[in-house]
Amino acid sequence: MVLINVNSPQKAEQVGFQGSPSIRINGQDLEGRNDGSSYSCRLYRIDGKTMPIPTKEFIAGKLSAYK
């Protein structure tokens, strides 16, 4: 695991940051948001609900696609 401190809009653009919190697997965003950048808080849409963090089940389901 690598943690990247994104502390400016310029850093967000440099690393393709998609808002906090973001999770990448092999350089790809967990939700497929790989274009552009966002220096902001991130919202996830899970089962019709807007959430500030992804659930463990959501993460596990996305990770199972990588196995």
SSE topology:
Blueprint (H helix, E strand, L loop, with lengths): L8 H7 L2 E3 L3 E2 L2 E2 L8 E4 L2 E3 L2 E3 L4 H9 L3
Parallel strand pairs: 1-4
Antiparallel strand pairs: 2-3, 5-6
Class per helix and strand makeup: alpha+beta
Number of helices: 2
Mean pLDDT over all positions: 92
Report the end-to-end length measured between terminal Cα atoms: 17 Å
State the share of residues found in helices, binned by percent. Answer: 10-25%
Report Rg: 12 Å
Please provide the ordered H/E string of secondary-structure elements: HEEEEEEH
Biggest sheet strand order reads 1-4
The count of DSSP E runs of length 2 or more, i.e. the number of strands, is 6
Kindly report the oligomeric state of this protein: single chain
Q: How many strands, which pairing sense, and closed or not: the largest β-sheet?
A: 2 strands, parallel
Indicate the low-confidence ranges by residue numbers: none
> Hey, roughly how much beta strand do the residues contain?
25-35%
Identify the overall geometry: globular
What this model shows, in words?
The chain is α+β, with helices and mostly antiparallel strands and 67 residues long. The protein contains 2 helices and 6 strands. The strands form 3 sheets. A two-stranded parallel ribbon has the order 1-4. A two-stranded antiparallel ribbon has the order 2-3. A hairpin with a 2-residue loop joins strand 5 and strand 6. The chain is globular, with a radius of gyration of 12 Å. The two termini are 17 Å apart.
